[in-house]
């Protein structure tokens, strides 16, 4: 399932890449001054910035897994509270 979702998502992004790239550029223009954008570019061109770019996908994956694990751990308590609420309201 994961491979199918990844394939379809990648395909959809590629089909809309120019629109997405323009929207991203516009949001950066709104959020940052030209000097700030130059500073960001300087950082990402530095060894530390290049390293961040190279490890960021792995970091995001790990952090996403941590968030998912927290959600899974919370689910039994969420269900119990919702069940108690349903009981209290007669549903």
Instruction: Please report the total strand number as a whole number.
Output: 0
Helix content: over 70%
Measured by DSSP, the beta-strand proportion falls in under 5%
Succession of helices and strands: HHHH
Give the biggest beta sheet: none
> pLDDT below 50 for ≥5 consecutive residues: which ranges?
none
Structural class: mainly alpha
Describe this structure in words.
- This protein is mainly α.
- The chain has four helices and no strands.
- It has helices spanning 2-15, 17-31, 34-45, 47-89.
- α3 (34-45) crosses α4.
- The longest helix has 43 residues, at 47-89.
- The model has no long low-confidence stretch (mean pLDDT 91).
Which helices and strands occur, and which strands form pairs?
Layout (H helix, E strand, L loop, with lengths): L1 H14 L1 H15 L2 H12 L1 H43 L2
Helix pairs in contact: 3-4
In short:
With 91 residues, the chain is an all-alpha fold.
Task: Provide tags for this entry.
91 residues, mainly alpha
């Amino acid at each position: 399932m994961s491979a199918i979702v990844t394939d379809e998502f990648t395909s959809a992004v590629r089909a809309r890449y120019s629109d997405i790239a323009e929207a991203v550029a516009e949001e950066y223009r709104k959020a940052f001054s030209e000097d700030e954008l130059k500073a960001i570019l300087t950082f990402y061109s530095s060894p530390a910035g290049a390293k961040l770019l190279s490890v960021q996908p792995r970091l995001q994956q790990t952090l996403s897994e941590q968030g998912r694990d927290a959600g899974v751990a919370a689910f039994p308590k969420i269900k119990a509270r919702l069940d108690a609420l349903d009981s209290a309201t007669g549903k």
